[in-house]
Write a structure and sequence with these properties.
Number of strands: 11
Low-confidence stretches: none
Mean pLDDT: 92
Strand order of the largest sheet: 5-9-8-7-6
Helix content: 40-55%
Radius of gyration: 23 Å
Distance between the termini: 37 Å
Largest sheet: 5 strands, antiparallel
Shape: globular
């Protein structure tokens, strides 16, 4: 683990001197002589070690008075993998800040969601990231603003509010302070892209740490796509998004060194959240080198890792939606689960317009589904009870599933629901909550793969053997699933 890596000066200097892109997002280099901060892989000639100081976040660099490097654009590096691996207060706060909570609800809203005082949260974030929640949210607003300035033709006033600034003046001041350029200068410097084919569509690149193996990631999303909400079209996974201010449609396509992302939003203020959710969906902030290194140490997994390094865990853009779909998928085929979900969408989803056709609805919220008639569900009575109890608990707010969920606590809460066994709780922990260590020892596909590899295939013996794969057992599941010829493992043509 690289936690607190910025304090290991010698290691940071080595990473900067070798321009090692694997550490982008883990720490930032501030250069005392020039007053700028860079990512470790900056192409410029590395400064002398005595002129470098290291910070854990872009926000900490900005607070210390450094400006973003114009060459390596440190604000566009992938996020720190720390927030995906940890379940503590700081990690949960960072996931919520990325989801725009501070911009919408303030620091008091952030604290209320986490169940701590604002002072405790400020103190912990400052201690670990060198910046409090407001500074971290401000750094994120600056990054969103830069993205809109450079990739869209939106008027600057619209950019300011879309990025979450309360006034055009604060937007101008922040951009100037962080990038040492005015918004107009930033736009003039940006590479000229062909004008967006469709007005209102924002096109951007989502960075990731290499390697990334897209087959099972996109294959899974495409093979389980719910008609009306998701589709695979022209080499991209497309879906509708329910967002805080409105809704959106996103298209995501794998490229060798980034994910191409096309976003159409009904309200541009949702941009930060939409990007954050797409990054979570595709697990783009993962540290594949650390994951694969550990799994490769097991001789049974090594050939699988060597054949296709960089597998990600396909996640979700909406935790409650995923939980509902996990229940619909209990003990039925992928095709049957899609059919059940499509019926719910048609009956209870919110209709949306898709200029490209194909997508018709937002997936229904738990509140919409709480009103459904259980007798209308074409499924066994016990599963109907499981579904109706889940949506009622979600709609009442008794059960909360989100970026800020405490993994062990939420898993325990799920297991108290009728019809929820370890498989359902763990698949939700793995794909909705993002727990990198969630494991599915009772899953048929996992057991079949284990048997074929000469691993123990009974759940308890397999769990014992898998202890060596911690904290990355969710990734081991991806490698095991991928040994099968199921469509979830194939990138659609």
């Amino acid at each position: 683990m690289h936690q607190g890596m910025h304090t290991d000066t010698e290691r940071c200097v080595r990473a900067v001197q070798s321009k090692d892109a694997r550490f982008d997002g883990w720490f930032y280099t501030a250069v005392l002589t020039t007053g700028i901060y860079c990512r470790p892989s900056c192409p410029a000639v590395p400064p002398k070690p005595e002129h470098m100081v290291f910070h854990p976040s872009a926000a900490a660099c900005q607070q210390a008075g450094f400006r973003a490097c114009k060459r390596c654009r440190p604000d566009t590096s992938p996020g720190s993998p720390e927030w995906n691996v940890r379940a503590d207060l700081v990690a949960r706060a960072m996931r919520l800040i990325a989801d725009g909570v501070v911009d919408r609800e303030g620091v008091t809203g952030l604290a209320a969601r986490l169940g701590y005082s604002t002072r405790q949260i400020e103190r912990q974030l400052l201690a670990e990231l060198g910046a409090g929640p407001l500074a971290l949210a401000r750094a994120q607003r600056a990054q969103t603003a830069r993205l809109l300035v450079e990739t869209t033709g939106l008027p600057m006033a619209d950019v300011a509010f879309a990025a979450g600034f309360s006034s055009v003046r604060t937007f101008n001041d922040t951009v100037r302070e962080v990038f040492a350029l005015s918004p107009t200068e930033l736009r003039a410097r940006a590479p000229k892209h062909a004008a967006a084919a469709t007005p209102g569509v924002i096109t951007l690149r989502l960075p990731f740490r290499a390697p990334l193996h897209p087959d099972n990631l996109f294959g899974h999303l495409a093979a389980t796509a719910v008609p009306g909400v998701e589709e695979w079209r022209d080499g991209a996974y497309r879906r509708t998004l329910r967002l805080p201010y409105g809704h959106g449609i996103v298209a995501l396509a794998p490229r060798p060194d980034h994910i191409a992302c096309r976003l159409a939003l009904s309200d541009p203020r949702d941009l930060t959240v939409a990007i954050s959710r797409c990054r979570r969906l595709l697990d783009l902030d993962a540290d594949p080198v650390a994951v694969d290194e550990q799994l490769r140490a097991d001789p049974a997994l090594a050939p699988l890792v060597d054949k296709a390094p960089g597998r990600r865990v396909p996640r979700t853009v909406d935790e409650a939606e995923f939980a509902v779909r996990a229940v619909l998928g209990q003990q039925v085929s992928t095709a049957a689960a899609r059919t059940h979900a499509a019926r719910l969408v048609t009956a209870h989803g919110t209709p949306v317009d898709d200029p490209e056709g194909g997508l018709t609805h937002l997936f229904p919220t738990p509140e919409h589904l709480a009103a459904l008639d259980p007798d209308a569900l074409a499924m066994p009575r016990t599963r109907r009870t499981t579904l109706t109890t889940l949506v009622r608990r979600l709609a009442d707010g008794d059960l909360r599933l989100g970026a800020d969920s405490d993994w062990p606590e939420t898993r325990a809460a799920l297991l108290t629901l009728p019809g929820f066994g370890p498989w359902t709780a763990d698949v939700i922990a793995m794909r909705a909550l993002g727990d990198p260590d969630a494991f599915l020892p009772t899953d048929l596909g996992v057991r079949r793969a284990a048997q074929a590899l000469g691993l123990p295939s009974t759940p308890s013996a397999l769990t014992t053997r898998a202890a060596a794969w911690r904290p990355w057992r969710a990734y081991a599941v991806q490698y095991l699933w991928a040994t099968d010829s199921h469509p979830i493992n194939v990138l659609p043509a």
